[in-house]
Amino acid sequence: MSTLLEILDPNFLLHDALVGSLLVGLVCPLVGVYFVLRRMIFLGVALPQLSAAGIAFAFFAYRAVVGVHAHEEPSERALAMVGSFAFTLIGLLVLAALERRGRNMVEARIGTTYALAAAATILFLAADPYGEAHMVNLLKGDITTTQSGHVTLLAAIYGAVVLVLLALRKELLLVSFDRELAMVFGRRVVLWDGLLYLLIGITISLGVMTAGPLVTFGFLVVPALTARLLTRRMLAFSLTASLLGAAAAFVGFWAAYRWDLPLGPSQVATACVVLMAVGALNALRQRLRRHHA
Amino acid sequence: MTALLNLDDVSIGYEGRPVLTHVTFAIERGEFVALLGPNGAGKTTLFRGILGLIPLLGGRVAYSFDRAASPPGYVPQKESLDPIFPLTTFEVVLMGTYARIPPLRPVGREARRRAAERLAEVGLAAQAKQPFWALSGGQKQRALIARALAVEPEVLFLDEPTAGVDTEAERAIMDLISRLNRDRGLTVVLVSHHLRLVRELVHAAIWVEDGRARKGATETILASQ
User: Do the Cβ atoms of A37 and B84 come within 8 Å?
Assistant: First the structure.
């Protein structure tokens, strides 16, 4: 109880880290529902890793062209954000374009992308010894070093992403559920896909910069999968996923602080435990229903 | 009757290779037309070309009304929709109203009322809150027809509306479509491979075979095959 009160205190030392975690937990699942509905879950693994490779590349390229970059400065964050966003968006567009040409080998392409991105991240880091230690923390998602300026930026950009998702949810649903109907209605499906990918790119880039690829992937997919087992309506699905994400972020944070555990893995493990519990209860309920029928 | 839709020397295919060429016919306002032909002859290709779902390789499809302002009603095969989406029957039907609601504008009370009316019209008012995927095959098809009607279309396009449903549901679906054509004067174009089902209901048939499509009175077309 005292740990909980300590965490909730506005003067808590890791207050910014807590708020950052909650924002990632709230917003990543809202984008993640489209990963689940469009059956793009594997992309959810590959894209955060691509984002990490983008951060590593941005530092590597800066050092090669300009010189050593200053650590912990706003310019370093901006550099990381540009690299992260560019790699995520380009990767997403290329994979989506290849998928449009043919669904064969989709898993192979995504798997190769993941392997390449993971390898490239390590290689770029190895080539930038000045930034290596700091970058390793950033890529692991060392959210405890998050500063208030970054949290403010995260809140502003994620707030805008949520507003756009809510305002355009009927178009995004239509294009995702029945692409042909959207075309019959005269909607430019490529543009709507592009907008969704842009929102995904922004969310993943900031998520990776804040909490690392593991947490971003976990919150993109796991709360949405759990919510799918619990809900029957689209809006309820999105909101439940988001609330589950935030709850897992908070409980994971509390557990990590209480027992001195690594933060990101604690949060993802919490989300997974909830998914397994809901899945087991769901299976039990179905078995009982069949038994009574 | 006046032409609602004109195809003029249309060629349709995939990746530059034509499946059908020199297709020319008109569909009249209020007509009930079936696209018939052997499997793989190009019925669905022609259907998709008319709807603008695949680009034409040549020729022209002209609607007599503004398609952007008044989109056609479209009923896909129910198997083309993914059951992973958590949607109630009402939410699926409500999607039909999106045709006339611009982006950023929320779905209002009037659209909800229209969706509820269309759902009642196909006899599924009681299933409005049920998950769409819990409906039987025939009920799903009727819900998709309600969704197409919620567009308030001038023409209704249906892709194999009786595929994968039992005989009783088949009859109910065809009766519903026939009633919409007869009572509302709604133009109907459907793809079917069930000659038995459609021959007594439709006004005309378009026979698709060997890269060609020709339109005529149902009995004339069927007698020539």
Answer: yes
Tokens standing for A56?
Answer: 């590593």
In Å, the largest CA–CA distance within chain B is: 53
Distance between B19 CA and the closest CA of chain A, angstroms:
19
- A163 touching B (Cβ < 8 Å): no
Report CB contact under 8 Å: A228, B86.
yes
Residues of chain B contacting A39 with CB distance shorter than 8 Å: 82, 84
Q: Which helix (H) or strand (E) holds B103?
A: none
Number of H helices and number of E strands within chain A?
12, 0
* Facing residue for B103 by CB, picked from A39, A168, A177: A168
Residues of chain A with Cβ-Cβ distance to B95 below 8 Å are 173-174, 177-178, 181
CA angle A26, A30, A33 (to 5 degrees): 135
Note the pLDDT of residue A72. Answer: 61
Structure tokens at B72: 């056609």
> Maximum distance among all alpha carbons in chain A?
71
- The first and second tokens of residue B92, run together, are 């699926």
pLDDT in tens, A169-187: 999 999 999 999 999 999 9
Q: Is B104 on the interface with A (CB under 8 A)?
A: yes
ipTM of the predicted structure?
0.93
Rounded to whole angstroms, what are the CA distances from B161 to B24, B45, B142? 25, 16, 9
Rounded Cα–Cα distance for residues A56 and A122 (Å): 8
Taking CA atoms, A95 is separated from A87, A112, A282, B176, B218, in Å, by: 12, 11, 34, 43, 47
**Residue A180 token pair:** 């042909």
pLDDT at position A231: 94
Q: What is the CA radius of gyration of chain A?
A: 20
- B221 three-class SS: helix
Instruction: Provide the whole-model pTM.
Output: 0.88
Nearest in space to A194 (alpha carbons), one of A153, A164, A217:
A164
Cβ distance A171 to B87 less than 8 Å, yes or no, reads: no
Distances, alpha carbon B204 to alpha carbons A54, A192, B199, in Å: 60, 38, 9
